Each structure stands twice: as C-alpha cells, then as structure tokens.
Amino acid sequence: MNDLWIETGYISLNKKGESLCGDRVETFGGGDEDLTLVLADGLGSGVKANILSTLTSKILCTMIAGGIPIEECVSTIASTLPVCSVRQVAYSTFTIIRIIDNKYAQIIQFDNPATIVLRKGEIFDYPKTTRVIADKTIWESTFPVQVDDVLIAMSDGAEYAGVGQSLNFGWTRDNIADYIVCNYLPDNSSKSTAAIIIDECNRLYNEQPGDDTTVAVVRMRNRHPVNLVVGPPECKDEDTRMMNLFFAKDGTKIVCGGTTSNVVSRYLRKPIDVALSYPDPEVPPISQIAGVDLVTEGVITLSKVLMYAEDFLDSARLAPIWTTQKDGASLIARELFENATDINFFVGRAINPAHQNPNLPITFAIKQQLVQNIADCLKKMGKYIRLSYF
User: 215, 312, 185, 8: which is closest to 320 by C-alpha?
Assistant: First the structure.
C-alpha cells in the first residue's frame, strides 16, 4: 500500500421528461481503501431502467467488493434481473472499476462506452482482453496505476449527445476523449471532471437529454491534509493547547471567525490585516495573518460553504461560482471540496451571543451543528474527517 488517495465523483442527467434516472453508480471503499465502482445503465428509461440499473450496480458492487469471481457475478445478474414485459429481455450494461492496494486498476466492461484513462493529461491506451460469460462479451483490463491517473466511465447517453441536433452522429468516444484532454487540469477533482463532461453533453442535447447520461470518474492523487479551526475554546485556559495542536498538523491552515482570529493572532504574535474588498457582498471579507493560509469570518461564511457543499453533492450547479470567485466561502469550498483528502476540524465550544440573533442569515443557530453538517457532506464526498472539540 502506498500513500495515494482514491477520489471518486459522478453526475447524471435524466432523460427529458423522466423523474428517475435509468443509470446508477454504486461505490464501495475509496480514499485509502480498495475501491469498487459500478456504473450500470438499465434498458430503456424511467422506472424500469432505474430498477434494472439499481439491481445491477448494487449486486455487482457487493459481490465484486466481496471477492466473488466475475463469472459468478455476471451469472447472478443474468438470473436475477426482472424481464421487461414489452421487450422480453432483462438487460443492463455495466462498467466496473476496481483499484486494489492503490497499485493497480482492474476494469470490467459490458456494452458501455469504453472507459477513458488519462495519464499525465494524455490518453493512455490500456490493455484489453475479451471473454464470453453467460452469453455476454466482457472486456477486461488490468494495469498499474500512477499518481494523477484519471479513469472516466460513462453510459451511452454521453456518446448519443447531439444526435440529430447539433451533431449528425453524436459525440463519439474519440470526440469525448479529445474534449477531456483539452479541458484537463491536474488539480481538477473527480466531480469537476464529471461536471465538465456532463455540461457539454447537456449543451449538445440543447438541454433536453434524449437519453439518461452518467459520467463517473476515479482519480489517483496524493494526500492533502487541511486543518480548519472555528471558534475559541469553551475555557480560555485551553487557547494555547488548541493552538498547539492546530499548528502542529501538516497541511493547509484555515481560521474562521473574528474571535478565533484574535486567538490565533495572539498565539503567533502576528497582526490581523483585514481586506477591504467584498468579492461577494453576501460574504464578509477575508483577512490575513502571517503563518495562516486563509482567514475568514465564521458562521455566515461557513453557512455559504454548507450551501455549496450540499449543491456539490447533488448537481454541482453552483460550482461555477465557488470555483472562480475569491470570497472567503469560495476559497474554503475550493480547498475542502477540490484539494483536501484529510480534513481536521478544531471546533471551539464558546458561545458567541451574536449568533443567537434570529435576524441574522444563519441557517443553524449553533456553530457546532453547522460544522457537523459540513463534515457530513465532506464524508459523502469521500474525505477523511476528524472533529476535535475544545
């Protein structure tokens, strides 16, 4: 086992007029553990397709992660899926991506577009073999992984984007691969990479998808710890201990809150320089303290971070805001969502009377609950979280 970190992210578009997506992504593990990711695409669309893809992804993910041979997994799927009353077939395509010991990748594919792999920002032509299992032709690949490798699986809705509209024959896999290379940035997270592709699919569909479309991305990256302190300790005598622990940690340092900034300023014996500009009028300005990477206001700023986090887990429609703006909430969001793998929260329990004002635009009256909700969102993003209270 090496020190690489497995990051995953995916986004789906529903077919126009459908409330349920016929594609499904299921994951097990990730981070510093072995990963199993399954992207399944059920026959047709709507409820039937959703049932087929859900059963396929859950069964395959559970069995593959449990070490069951692929032959038995495929046979189980073939005998388990319900038969469509109209077409008289039980059918779901799938792509399985496994990362084992952070050292090598295994890709198993049936009838989905071939997974695209980027290595150092260029297309990597990985080895492929085929075999027939339960009358299905299965493509299999195994190869060593490297830091910054990006594996991109998709349903066929991506290749059909633009058919008969903006493109005569759809957005082919080669077109998609070229587009990914042109838009590649080493720091793009898995979710951001998926969003870039999905946004282009949606544009080619003229925002009226003719098929369910899903993109799932796995990225191999180095670990990046981030440490965030918010609020002074409940007991003032704990200030020094809290600061000793906070600054002893490796990684990015973020300080949230005016009172917290004063505690840090006294500890470091460095002044607080307050910026006068407001990149976002709804977010208080940031400050600077020598020895700290980012200093922001507290609860109002973190409330905006929570809003961005909840959106990021859903559709990521607000991502163009926080990925480009330079206000405190956007800077925190970029660091936590895009850069961080391990996040240590240092939370002071002292109560700020101002936070009890019901007229303030604060979603949660209690600071600890706000931090807990952000931490819960980050866990769903696959981050390793540690909360310490003082």
Answer: 312
Mean pLDDT in the chain?
91
255 and 261 Cβ atoms separated by less than 8 Å:
yes
Q: Which of 57, 146, 137 is nearest to 96 (CA)?
A: 57
Q: Are 10 and 57 in contact (CB under 8 A)?
A: no
> Nearest 10 degrees: CA dihedral of 141, 145, 213, 83?
40
Separation between Cα atoms, residue 255 and residue 189, nearest integer Å:
24
Report the interhelical angle of 239-248 vs 258-268 (nearest 10°). 80
* Six token digits for residue 336: 């936590």
User: What tokens appear for 192 in the block?
Assistant: 């951001």
Domains with residue ranges and CATH for the chain = 4-222 (3.60.40.10), 225-389 (no CATH)
d(CA 318, CA 257) in angstroms, rounded, equals 24
Closest CA to 50 of 77, 18, 80: 18
Write the CA distances from 107 to 42, 149, 316, integer angstroms.
Answer: 19, 14, 27
What CA–CA distance (Å, rounded) separates 100 from 106? 8
Give residue for tokens 């990963």. 35
- pLDDT band with cut points at 50, 70 and 90 for residue 364: very low
CA nearest 35: which of 120, 115, 100? 100
Q: Locate tokens 């990006």: which residue?
A: 150
Please write the tens of the pLDDT for every residue from 206-222.
Answer: 999 999 999 999 999 99
- pLDDT tier for residue 363 given thresholds of 50, 70 and 90: very low
- Higher-scoring residue by pLDDT: 218, 84: 218
Tokens found for residue 373: 């909700």
Instruction: Say yes or no to pLDDT of 362 above 50.
Output: no
Question: Among 183, 291, 188, 305, which Cα is nearest to 246's?
Answer: 291
Q: What is the spatial distance between Cα 267 and Cα 353, in angstroms, rounded to a whole number?
A: 24
The C-alpha angle with vertex 260 and arms to 258 and 265, in degrees rounded to 5, equals: 95
Residue 267 CA, chain-centre distance (Å), reads: 35
